[in-house]
Specification:
This protein has 276 residues and is mostly helical. Helix content is 74%, strand content 0%.
Length: 276
Amino acid sequence: MAAGAAAGVKPRPGRGAQRFAPSFAPFLPLFVALVGASWAALWLWSASPYARYLEHPGWLDATSFAAFCRSAAVPAGVHALAWLLMIAAMMLPTTYPLLATFRRITASRRDASLLLALVCLGFVVVWAAFGVAAWAADAGVRAWVQRSDTFVRHGWLLGAGVLAAAGLFQFSKLKYRCLDACQSPFVFVAARWHGRAPRREALQLGMAHGAFCVGCCWALMVVTFVVGMGSLGWMLALAALMAAEKNLPWGRRLRAPLGIGLLLAAAGVALLPQLH
């Protein structure tokens, strides 16, 4: 209670609540504009002559490692920009409840906007680090695959394996420990925000939330490496699923249907080549 009061968790009724409304009102339209602009940028990019810089070869084909190396020769900043746009488009909507809670708690502070920006920065930094690790792992897998005659002839095995792993992760305890943290934004913020070192605490809060978000969503994000990062339809579907899991009261009920669906997709990818 003391920490909450120190941070302004319990606003006074009456005129205090009226002072709060104008400072909070612009947040939602700005947030929606940012996410919408990110999706629009991805769509325009995918429809432009430079779409090849956004595309990532899916793990359902047998793309050669040499071809991957040629694509990796594109300046790293271009791929980093694509990944950051994906984070803004797909992952920021899933963290809206926490951002809205933090905004309410800090609304009376003069530096409220800066603190909210630092929370977003911490969140993006963690997801960006995950993106770097995922791309490095992807390059390592492709290098290893080229030394295996089996995987060279049957490139679809990787896609089936990733889909199966994502399906099994839906039933793991780790996913739901992380999901529980993400579904309790007030508790999450109150445990980490005390207002004593506001900028540092805001950045650490964003990074902590990013870590839990990666913990519950990383497997679904890796599925984008299977379907191809340039497929906006699949990206939108995955973003909707992750947002529903994290933010809707019945999100946990998606556990079994989504896990079974991914396992069936893995089986389909494995069986389809045998039917030809």
